[in-house]
Design a protein that fits this description.
homodimer, 7-stranded parallel beta sheet, TIM Barrel, 2 domains, 8-stranded mixed beta sheet, alpha/beta
């Protein structure tokens, strides 16, 4: 089957670009120094490729991602990097981890999340620390006290995490480095009070600022990068040496006057970072099942396939059922996006 | 099960509000004068409620929606209001329609879409006419010629459609009425050249401008409204007498300093119309699995449920697997969102 025969809209992966991205990152952050975030692709087949390259610790955003990874037999050390109060779902995480002999660590940032983890039979927790992005995460000054609460409840506290999400897109690398260093000073201070072997943080946008061998290492044990695997138009703007490996492929279904219409719309795209890109075309607007666009440089024929580059990868992939893996224009594999929903 | 026991994030429907919306519209546009658009909810159980009120003609946006409706036995006259070149999918539409004795009409706007329909065994087509929104749809002046092409290929041409999507959100009703009238004059002119019994158009935002009994009727036979069923924050701003029946329910999972975090994020919401609303709270930002917010008027406790009103209903619902139907705080039913994907 060639790329022109895939029913559209379809999430299509350039296998060669994917492989290069995976190898580039594995070289920069080998083995356990990378804790790939599966939320970026929600695909156990892709996570297995990351494990093949030596990454056996993973980050997950939902209980379903953790349970799915365990069921697929990918990863030996899984961090649920989210505040979860749903005891039923956490119980499924604990049971799956116990039966598979996998470490499932759960982030906690309150006595309530600690209680939920303990009731669910979770054994390991990590203190989620606020390092400047206003989301989950306890203030650094309270981290030690929270670790104490967790230990009193019989839980193992294996360290801290603190996602500097607000610094992922700082394009001036000197400024980024300074601000990441300041954020990591907060995380290390919390870690001094918490203890444990893990100091986990980071994302694709800051992965190079935590690298082992830097003049001023940030003291982080592992980086939770996910988007490097596929890259979107936003991450591409950072020029970090990764390629856009995923496009949403659409069919040109209409051509009237100077406009074209493709069958990729809001239901096939994550739109929170704005409109997608189609080559050097002008994207007019997206609606539920369409994107209208035009081009000054070329013409399209009806039925032709177009590659659409989403602005934000994670919520885009979560809209699709499978990844079509393509090599030299031929479909070589299909991977279910099996970790969707909650 | 009460609403506080639903695992979150969840798409929750207020059954009473839904019923009132359905009845309000059925009174305004009874029976076949409404051709409800299933793309707004993608749920055959909900479509069955619309059919119970007398609407047996439906509008669909994808082949999967048409086939799913036929398999569920809902509707007797289905319009695929989209330009489709995928002969395999159209063949499944034709086969399902033939075996169930349902009329499946397919919109066409080019000789290529006509050819695809004919090759697939589709019998009825409708000429999709551009009435001012730059998407699919042939220029009115070419509509008659296209109908002739279709008839030469042995297809029945049952009329025209022309969606005035660009006029759905014109809040000044006098201006809206004038512009809709102008758009419908274009559609009627095309219909004069095309023939056939159907002149289909419209949406929730303009449904009241096509009503039978108006001083200046637009000559439309049926209105393709969908969003009236649930309404989103955008449609609510038109004050058309429909209620927001759907909310995405989340759990408050974190509270630090003056901010709260809920477990409803980009992967549970359609974001193209902007951030969702949470009561009178200030929504700070949405990320993949979270929304951070604050309130000057009240406090929340961890574990508490919050109702989040999405800005755009259609791409929001397409992110969920089921609708939880709630009456007086109790879950009375669960409806699969079974028409998702393509």
């Amino acid at each position: 089957m060639n790329i022109g025969e895939i029913p559209t809209p379809a999430a299509v992966v350039d296998a060669a670009a994917l492989t290069r991205n995976l190898h580039t990152m594995a070289q920069r952050l080998p083995g356990l120094s990378l804790r790939p975030h599966v939320k970026a692709h929600k695909c156990t087949a892709l996570a297995a490729r990351q494990a093949d390259l030596g990454h056996h610790a993973f980050t997950c955003a939902t209980p379903r991602e953790v349970v799915g990874m365990i069921e697929a037999g990918v990863g030996t050390d899984l961090l649920l990097a989210n505040a979860v109060l749903d005891v039923d779902r956490l119980t499924r995480v604990a049971q799956a981890a116990n039966s598979a002999d996998v470490i499932a660590r759960v982030a906690v940032d309150s006595s309530e999340t600690i209680e939920a983890a303990q009731r669910a039979g979770i054994r390991d927790v990590i203190i989620d620390v606020d390092v400047g992005m206003p989301r989950c995460g306890v203030a650094p000054v309270h981290a030690g006290q929270l670790a104490e609460t967790a230990r009193q409840r019989g839980l193992t506290v294996s360290g801290v995490m603190g996602y500097e999400g607000h610094l992922q897109m700082v394009s001036d690398r000197k400024e980024a480095q300074e601000r990441v260093a300041a954020a990591m000073a907060m995380l290390r201070a919390a870690h001094d009070d918490v203890g444990g072997e893990i100091v986990s943080t980071g994302g694709t946008g800051t992965h190079d600022l935590h690298q082992i061998g830097l003049e001023h290492p940030t003291g982080v044990t592992d980086v939770q990068a996910g988007s490097y695997v596929m890259v979107d138009t936003q991450y591409a703007s950072l020029h970090q040496g990764f390629e856009q490996a995923l496009t949403i492929v659409g069919t040109v279904i209409a051509h009237h006057e100077n406009r074209y219409v493709t069958d990729v719309g809001l239901k096939a795209l994550g739109m929170d970072h704005g409109d997608p890109l189609i080559g050097d075309c002008k994207v007019w607007f997206c609606s539920d099942e369409h994107t209208t666009f035009s081009s000054h440089t070329r013409t399209f024929t009806l039925g032709e396939r177009v590659h659409i580059r989403p602005a934000h990868i994670d919520p885009t992939i979560a809209r699709h059922e499978e990844l079509w893996i393509v090599e030299d224009g031929e479909v070589v594999d299909r991977w279910p996006i099996d970790l969707r929903h909650w």
